[in-house]
Write a structure and sequence with these properties.
The chain is of the alpha+beta class. It is built from 17 helices and 17 strands.
Length: about 500
């Protein structure tokens, strides 16, 4: 069983719960299993979630702001069926198990969400003039929804708005390849490294260069390191990390960012310990590691003066191997050594540099070496086809979680990145299910506003925006609702 949490601040987070297991949701200091510290309306011990007989349940623990389902505050245990959403504070909870529906037809997404789909046109006067504390609410909402003539049934949040001059999704060029845009197929996980805490020093033992590459790319520079121990260090404590390989030792510094004490570990059936985040990686150390992984440095802890000179061919072959491995893992940015936030000009320059590097050694290759380099050229061609096209790159980014909505919208406004129309179109292609969920949440938000549950409406609107972050009309609507809510809260 899998529980999914969603909030505009953090997006979506999912984690599994086994049958018979339970977790308490709350804030730091409440002895909770999952801390929702991003949500200001969460109590220290807000609610508990558990799995019993293959069914997912939730129960409020007497929280101040309650646990809700479709506008009703829950007063006892409630079963969260697949596809059902409840809310704690401002955070949505959803049973992430697949929902199989037969005998029904899913509504199409082809730009047909109109005002009449969201509210009854005969009730618009009630909706727009309902708030007793806001005499000018009708005018504010008319401006917010950009509907000078409600009786004309003009599209409120039409998917086609602003895209008249853009090709429809059916006109978009086909995706470059399934392996490039679809999540990589599951493969057996490699053996985790041996990590121990000895005398206040974290010691990591790795067998070879490939193990260091996995540990560096997937743990040290991204998610961090978990150290199993029965006596976890304190939160915020600074520790030294020694990474030992057959070719030398790498020494880094890390901070404790998460602690799992023995009591909490027993509750979840997991090891106790501490999560560490590596900090302040010196550029010289990072360059040394990269050279070692690329084959340009035979000894990990050698200084620049100790590096043994290797041929261009050996360096190119080592870099080619690394490129192939990362493309096979669908990590295209790591394959070209750039961050997903890189500008298109930086991506283009890097692709050109790699192409030049591979072609520059052609005359020096033996037939076996040329055969080893051929797969790398094919992988590079796949990367070029995906990342050199701004629209295909967006589709790849969104399909693999590289969203950065606020940064992308700012770049669109500054004309330094893809337009809003392109962002919107790529999102619709990559996440049609979330687009549909956003529509459903927005309908419920309007129902809440019509019933004068403005707080509920605002929360649902934010959840809808988190599902469809490039829906600009929705974004403006939520901003207006937030401004009205803040004004009324100040007046109260």
């Amino acid at each position: 069983m899998k529980l999914r949490l969603s909030h505009p601040t953090v997006g979506e987070i999912a984690f599994p719960l086994s049958d018979g297991g339970q977790v308490v949701l709350g804030r730091r200091g409440g002895s909770t299993g999952v801390e929702l510290n991003w949500d200001p309306k969460i109590s220290r011990r807000h609610a508990r979630v558990w799995v019993e007989g293959g069914r997912l349940w939730i129960e409020d623990l007497g929280s101040r702001n309650g646990t809700w389902h479709q506008g009703t505050r829950l007063t006892g245990p409630f079963q969260i069926e697949p596809g059902t959403r409840v809310r704690v504070g401002e955070t949505g909870l959803e049973n992430a198990e697949p929902l199989f529906v037969t005998g029904t037809k899913t509504q199409t997404l082809a730009g047909n969400l109109r005002l009449e789909d969201l509210i009854d046109p005969t009730d618009d006067a009630e909706l727009l003039g309902a708030h007793p504390a806001s005499e000018d609410l009708e005018l504010a909402l008319e401006e917010e929804l950009q509907l000078p003539d409600l009786d004309g049934a003009a599209p409120l949040l039409d998917f086609a708005a602003g895209l008249e001059d853009a090709p429809r999704p059916t006109d978009v060029a086909p995706l470059p390849s399934e392996s490039a845009l679809a999540p990589a197929p599951s493969t057996p996980a490699p053996t985790p490294p041996d990590v121990r805490l000895i005398d206040g020093v974290v010691q990591v033992v790795l067998d070879d260069r490939d193990a260091l590459e996995r540990f560096w790319d997937c743990d040290l520079t991204k998610t961090g390191v978990f150290v199993p121990t029965d006596v976890p260090p304190d939160f915020g404590q600074r520790l030294s990390v020694e990474v030992a390989t057959p070719d030398g030792v790498l020494t880094l510094s890390a901070t404790v960012v998460h602690v799992v004490d023995p009591a909490m570990a027993a509750q979840f059936g997991s090891p106790s310990g501490a999560g560490l985040q590596v900090v302040d990686i010196d550029p010289a150390i990072e360059r040394r590691v990269r050279d070692y992984l690329d084959g340009a440095r035979p000894i990990l802890n050698a200084t620049d003066g100790d590096v043994v000179d290797t041929s261009r061919v050996d360096i190119a072959l080592a870099a080619s191997k690394r490129l192939i491995l990362r493309v096979e893992k669908n990590d295209l940015y790591s394959a070209i050594e750039l961050a997903p936030e890189a500008l298109q000009s930086e991506v283009d320059a890097k692709l050109g540099e790699i192409q030049s590097r591979l072609s520059g050694v052609t005359s020096d290759l033996s037939p076996p070496q040329a055969a080893r380099l051929t797969p790398a050229r094919k992988c590079l061609a796949q990367v070029v086809e995906t990342l050199a096209s701004p629209e295909r790159r967006l589709q790849y980014d969104f399909a693999n979680g590289h969203v950065f909505a606020d940064k992308r919208l700012k770049a669109a406004a500054d004309r330094t990145g893809p337009s809003v129309a392109m962002l919107r179109r790529a999102w619709r292609i990559s996440h049609p299910r979330q687009v549909e969920q956003s529509q459903q949440l927005l309908r419920r938000a309007f129902e809440m506003r019509r019933s004068r549950a403005f707080d509920e409406a605002l929360t649902l609107g934010k959840e809808a925006l988190a599902k469809d972050p490039f829906w600009m009309e929705l974004r403006r609507t939520v901003e207006t609702w937030q401004a009205l809510y803040n004004r009324d809260a100040s007046a109260a």
